[in-house]
Amino acid sequence: MREAGRRSAPLVPYGADETVYVVEDRVVGPDGISRDVELERSGLEIIIEEMLSAQFNDPVRVVAFNTLEHWAADLSMEVAAEIRMRCDIDGEPVPDYIMDFVERHTASMRSRGMQPA
Questions:
Q1: DSSP H or E segment with residue 106
Q2: Residue of 72, 71, 88 whose CA lies nearest to 22
Q3: Residues 97, 54: contact at Cβ < 8 Å?
Q4: What is the mean pLDDT of residues 1-9?
Q5: Dist CA 76 CA 60 (whole Å)
Q6: DSSP 3-state assignment of 41?
């Protein structure tokens, strides 16, 4: 039951030209079954920082939506390239917990003839 005076945030921004970022994350439930959940975030920088600090279980992809401008884009390749670049700059390997995400999406870049940053 909802508490009086508390309202949940709308899923679609009202009257604002906002881009909404969604991370699809794979979670294994207590029954051992894998499920994909979608987690909304306010920006790419937050997503990258949270990925680098192990805030996701098994990220699958990152998608941006802008309801006012009527577009959506899969930004997984860009996020993966940014994570790899930051790790390279810091002289650290990509953390194991996001290695699959980074490898999957930077491999996708290479197959399209693009170079990761």
A1: helix 96-111
A2: 72
A3: yes
A4: 42
A5: 8
A6: strand
d(CA 28, CA 21): 22
Could you give the CA distance from residue 74 to residue 63 in angstroms, rounded to a whole number? 4
Residue with structure tokens 């680098």? 52
SS3 label, residue 58: coil
What is the tens place of the pLDDT at every residue in 19-68? 889 999 988 777 777 676 877 888 899 999 999 999 998 999 999 998 88
Q: 79: closest CA among 68, 94, 66, 91?
A: 94
What are the residues whose beta carbons fall under 8 Å from the beta carbon of 78, sequence distance 6 or more?
Answer: 44
**Is 36 in contact with 60 (CB distance < 8 Å)?**
yes
Nearest-angstrom CA–CA distance, 53 and 35:
22
pTM above 0.70, yes or no: yes
Amino acid at 73: A
